[in-house]
């Protein structure tokens, strides 16, 4: 039964992701907003809801270690697994946006701020407010960047929508489908987590691995499915924007909401490897965007980091 639920949940994820990408294109076309901005805000915040729900619940239950580990693990998986998959499945990646010049700051700074915050062993409510302010600054930056999309991209979107026999843009059509897509992605991810946990238990996998690895992996499923769907449609800017925006949301809004619910204590010595891996993965993202290394070898390099992370996690049981 768990396997059937898992398959149905994955189908819901895929369908929801397709709706998200399709309707986000409509919004971008309607308001001349770049696909990156849509991916980094609307889709990124939507796909970060599972992380937020899991971390808030864990924090409220006094399990701050799980809440923080969920964010760390999700950030690592978003870069190594999701971005790695994008590099491997996409034939040619030539994004319109210069991610290094415009976005590397927003990928790295939240991680450095997070490290500074946990040095004293606690993420306080004051820290949570600072994290919310940081996310607000990122949203303001994106709004200033939303200057419109280039003419050939606009024509391409118009042609795609015409080929699909789409009707004129209408909020009454787009908003319901967008909400359905978000619900399918979030609910699908939650059921996928639960069913995968049941499957894992049936094979005798430890509760620690299920709690840490499976939760992080499960809450990263929306980013994975949405980014793959966007990449296969040739919307790489949207896919990469989703990853950067999701990590930004994880480190600011998700952690901030969890700490605002209840201040979270952490023994940094227990998470040195995981925190270091998150930092290395983020630096790798900055390096790849700086040199525009959107290639399959770069994807393999990201999977190597993922392999080391998973090997250490399993070995530390």
In DSSP terms, counting alpha (H) and pi (I) runs of 4 or more, how many helices? Answer: 12
**Head-to-tail CA distance between termini:** 28 Å
Please give the order of strands in the largest beta sheet: 1-2
Radius of gyration: 19 Å
Structural class: mainly alpha
Mean pLDDT: 80
**Element order, helices and strands?**
HHHHHEHHHHHEHH
Which residues sit in consecutive blocks of at least 5 with pLDDT less than 50? 148-157
Principal-axis shape = globular
Brief sketch in words of this structure:
This protein has helices at residues 2-31, 35-47, 49-60, 64-89, 99-118, 125-145, 151-163, 171-202, 207-232, 236-261, 272-290, 296-315; strands spanning 122-123, 264-265. The chain has 317 residues and is mainly alpha-helical.
Question: How is this fold's topology laid out?
Answer:
Blueprint: H1 2-31, H2 35-47, H3 49-60, H4 64-89, H5 99-118, E1 122-123, H6 125-145, H7 151-163, H8 171-202, H9 207-232, H10 236-261, E2 264-265, H11 272-290, H12 296-315
Helix pairs in contact: 1-2, 1-8, 1-9, 2-10, 3-4, 3-9, 3-10, 4-9, 4-10, 4-11, 4-12, 5-10, 5-11, 6-10, 8-9, 9-10, 11-12
Structure in words:
The structure is a single chain. With 317 residues, the chain is mainly alpha-helical. It has a single domain (35-147, 205-315), classed as Up-down Bundle (A middle domain of Talin 1). Helices cover 81% and strands 1% of the residues. The protein has twelve helices and two strands; from the N terminus they run H-H-H-H-H-E-H-H-H-H-H-E-H-H. It has a two-stranded antiparallel ribbon. It is globular and about 55 Å long.
